[in-house]
Automatic annotation (TrEMBL):
Protein name: Acyltransferase
Main enzyme class: transferase
SUPFAM superfamilies assigned to the protein according to its UniProt record, in alphabetical order: Trimeric LpxA-like enzymes (SSF51161)
Any Pfam family hit: Hexapep
The entry's keywords: Acyltransferase, Transferase
Domain of life: Bacteria
Keyword Disulfide bond: no
Amino acid sequence: MTEPRIAATADVDPSAKIGPGTQIWHLAQVREQAVLGEECVLGRGAYVGPGVRVGDRVKLQNYALVYEPAVLEDGVFVGPAAVLTNDVYPRSTDAGGGLKRDGDWTAEGVVVRAGASIGARAVVVAGRTIGRHALVAAGAVVTRDVPDFALVAGVPARRVGWVGRAGVTLRQDEGGGWRCPETGETYTEHDGRLSGPR
Ligand SMILES: CC(C)(COP(=O)(O)OP(=O)(O)OC[C@H]1O[C@@H](n2cnc3c(N)ncnc32)[C@H](O)[C@@H]1OP(=O)(O)O)[C@@H](O)C(=O)NCCC(=O)NCCS
């Protein structure tokens, strides 16, 4: 596989690990100790915080902001200007007015499981988990964990459907199961969770 391709204007800390075949475009920033896997693509202005772990074939679109200590598994997509936050009750200063520094607060990372996608300008509140192959609609604000394969939308984000591994909305068949019109794969719903595919 090819060496990583890093634009001259990108700011990649020397301590960050960048996998083969990964492309980092103009003005993107990758902070210290961050780890990016193979064949990732970071668009213009994307930000990856210190120590963030990113798997293989992950796409961060332009100006996507991933704050530490987020974990993005393989095949994750983060849309343009989406934000994965890390502080539920943010403050610049403490009660006495002094500047808060690293160590004065505890960062809580977002976890995005394999194959999940986050739409443009969505916000994920600190500490939430986006399940495998889930899809977060454009502009959603995720305040609760998102189950595997769930399609969530709105503010706050609610489940409005299911999507399969191909990212296409599943259709319910006569037996109550869920079928992907693209791949023909079928899934089973039980107690608000989807399992499969078969
Ligand atoms: C959520 C999404 C997958 C739905 O697509 P779809 O299944 O084709 O849905 P439709 O456009 O037929 O809309 C179905 C309903 O959901 C609503 N809807 C669609 N997108 C929505 C969104 N982002 N937030 C809230 N509601 C949304 C529509 O208004 C419509 O409501 P209605 O039935 O009351 O009229 C899609 O709109 C979306 O947000 N995709 C992510 C796009 C993105 O950010 N891409 C990033 C790369 S640029």
